[in-house]
Known about the structure:
Structural class: mainly alpha
Strand content: under 5%
Largest sheet: 5 strands, parallel
Strand order of the largest sheet: 2-1-3-4-5
CATH topology of the domain at 3-141: Rossmann fold
CATH class of the domain at 3-141: Alpha Beta
CATH superfamily of the domain at 3-141: Response regulator
Radius of gyration: 30 Å
Amino acid sequence: MNQSDRKDVVNPFGKLHFLIVDDFENFRLSMRQMLRSCGADKIELVGHATPAVQYCTYNHVDVVLCDFNLGEGKNGQHILEELRHKKLLKRSALFLMVTAETSKEMVMGAREYQPDAYLTKPINRAMLEKRLGSLINQRNALLPITREIDQENYPEAISQCLQALPKQPRYKTWLMKTLGELYFLVGDMAHAQKVYDDVLNQRELSWASLGRCKVLLANRNFDQAVDGLKALIERHPDYMEAYDLLAEGLEKQGKPMQAQQILEKAAEHSPNALLRHKHLAELAGANQDIDTASQAWRQTVSLGTYSIHDNPDHYLSLAQSLSDLSEGDMNEEGTERASEALNVLAKMEKRFSDDESISLKSRIVQSRVHSGQGRQREAEKILTSVESDIKALEEIPSDVGLDYAKTLFRTGREHQAKELLGQLAARYDNDADLLQKIENLLDEPVGFRQKLEARSFNREGIKAFEAGSLDTAVSAFNQALSIVPDHAALNLNLVQVLMKQFEQQPGNQALLTTCQQRLERLSHLPEQHRQYRRYQALIRKIKGLTA
């Protein structure tokens, strides 16, 4: 060991760059004095979030000591979130959350972004030197590994971990955890699972259980992964990463409602995690639970006020869900939701005024909100300005086109909507997700309450058909089609039931006439539609019966 290395061991604080973030000057000065007495020399003091992020953007920082409460604006969680998102802190850097607040909500929210430690005020020199000194010693011992990770040289980092395991037994937990993560990153699932199994054979550690379930999911062992995650949450109900992974596993099992329930439970435990609220909103929307979706979008927008993850799409999605809820509801609650939707859109336009597309997206939803409240004059006036802007575009973005078509349907411009969706389907014929959305809109160009009602009748019809009750099935499908007359699958379902009836009543030509009329309604069906082949097959069968 040379003289410089001995000096680092004696004074681990000496060579490091420190950043202290606190809105009280006296506390900043007090912390600087304590760090200096511990041997630190390079110390920067800032009072708020913006200068803290700016400093980390342009300067090397080894240790951040950040207060959670920083007055008006961003707090310590927002700073940690932004530094992690922008990758402004190296893997070797330490982030310590300093706080006088110890509420569960604060700790759970901050823990989502994994600070290295918490320091609870008041802080004295002895406590600071002991806690921080221990972390710095670990940081220095593992520096060869974290440097390789920062450079994304994962195979070398794996090699360094394996070499360090017999030499650094006191850091075995960190090394095994990091080794499992690295094997997963490089796609070596067999070695990743072995690492987690080796740890779990010695003792039950939550991170190892989570890692093993993550590997199981990657290997498509969904049932095992889901069972393991449920057991993990049972043992550690505050381990939020397990909830997110469990929701992912349930989605892959084809259980979106159960996945939604898990995310709802997670959001109750840790209410400040923006990305989880966003996931919940998207999942609830897909499940046609618009009430839950709107509440989750509301939380996402609220949490985004000072977050790096703030996005105009969150505001737009909230307004769209409120528009759906208020459509056709002239009661006080419907009027309030429509008003909230318009206010959200106004805030979006003001907050993201530098985005030229925002105004267009906003007005498309505004027109739909007014139409849903029976204010046709306002809806048409806004729609006229939208049409003018749409015509000026060289090409309509797919998301704008879909939402515009939705508004065209709601304002009675059905032909124009279908023509637009046909153009989008032809242009994006290789985009399976978009084609699915186009199909859904063509099939169900109505409000979500009407969609749910039509789907309920469809389920009744299918159940009756399978039970052999053909008359009941015909009645149910007709009720569904009175709501969504152009729904491809519903029309074809009815045709199949009528053809079954014709087999039993071969002289009843009225049945075939009704079949032909239903198939004619689908003459606009694009080739990309998933029901197109079934539609063509039924046309051929009808022709055979009428020849």
